[in-house]
Design goal:
Rossmann fold, ABC transporter ATP-binding protein, 21% strand, 286 residues, six-stranded mixed β-sheet, P-loop_NTPase, alpha/beta, single chain, ATP binding, nucleotide-binding, four-stranded antiparallel β-sheet, transport
Length: 286
């Protein structure tokens, strides 16, 4: 692959709500990402896929502010956020879940979800300490939003007071998505949202992702290795291999791309790739 940015004209107006330009990430002498560039259209579901070690989670960590790129830019609603720390990106409307569940296991479901709103709270230390007017109002508003909207939407009312540690894996993943939604995101980044789930749990999560986009107007960017789900849900698919974008386009375009077929299969058997896609999963943890 050539070492050139995906976009040559970086001054051109961007139609994307989220965009990465020529993003390069290195750990010592090893490049995890090389000149990665793509855009995420408002209101779309965009999937990032690729074989093991392709750089998908490294890309997510760079976009969300946990890793600092060696070069390139991350733009959110046209603003360069490359140097912003993760909490400030979250406050702008960039929320994410994690490949490995990152909940507070000793806390209840409700308390875990409410923590997602922390980036937007304006209460000062004095108000919070004595639970004065602004603190009371923010707490009441937060509780209404979480209980009447998010918990109801994700169908987890029956476990709101349960300890996260006592929940099965599939429900924990749903709680993590709820916490991300509590951040009031404009773009929801989901890192392998159905990893480790059974078929019924996967179908439920796929429905929630579609409804988040349709009912709440939230743009979704996800890393996922369940290819059946990716091809069913996505408007746009970006394929990484060895830290580089080797293809992007609609699911149909990506399925037929020779580079994608070689990356997954090592041979140009389109029929075999399509059979695997219909079968569901092709391993791809980054």
């Amino acid at each position: 692959m050539p070492d050139e940015p995906i976009w040559d004209d970086l001054s051109a107006p961007a139609a994307s709500v989220l965009r990465v330009d020529a993003l390069t990430l290195a750990f010592g002498g090893v490049k995890a990402l090389t000149n990665v560039g793509f855009g995420v259209a408002p209101g779309s579901i965009t999937a990032v896929i690729g074989p093991n070690g392709a750089g998908k989670t490294s890309l997510f960590n760079t976009i969300s502010g946990f890793y600092k790129p060696a070069q390139g830019r991350v733009l959110f609603e046209g603003e360069d956020i490359t140097r912003l720390p993760a909490p400030k990106r979250a406050a702008l409307g960039l929320a994410r879940s994690f490949q490995n569940i990152a909940l507070f296991r000793g806390m209840t479901v409700l308390d875990n979800i409410k923590l997602g709103r922390h980036a937007h709270l304006k209460t000062n230390v004095f108000d919070a300490l004595f639970y004065l007017g602004r603190a009371r109002r923010e707490e009441a508003e937060l509780r209404r939003d979480v209980e009447e909207r998010i918990i109801d939407f994700l169908e987890i009312d029956h476990i709101r007071h349960a300890s996260v540690a006592a929940l099965p894996y599939g429900l924990q993943k749903r709680v993590e998505m709820a916490r991300a939604l509590a951040m009031q995101p404009k773009v929801l980044m989901l890192d392998e949202p159905v990893a480790g789930m059974n078929r019924e749990e996967t179908e439920d999560m796929a429905r929630f992702i579609l409804d988040v986009r349709r009912e709440w107007g939230i743009t979704v960017l996800m890393v996922e290795h369940d290819m059946g789900m990716v091809m069913d849900l996505s408007d746009h698919v970006v394929v990484l291999n060895f830290g580089q974008v080797i293809a992007q386009g609609t699911p149909a375009q990506v399925q037929a791309d020779p580079e994608v077929i070689r990356a997954y299969l090592g041979a140009g058997d389109v029929g075999e790739l399509r059979r695997r896609l219909r079968g569901g999963s092709m391993a791809g943890a980054a």
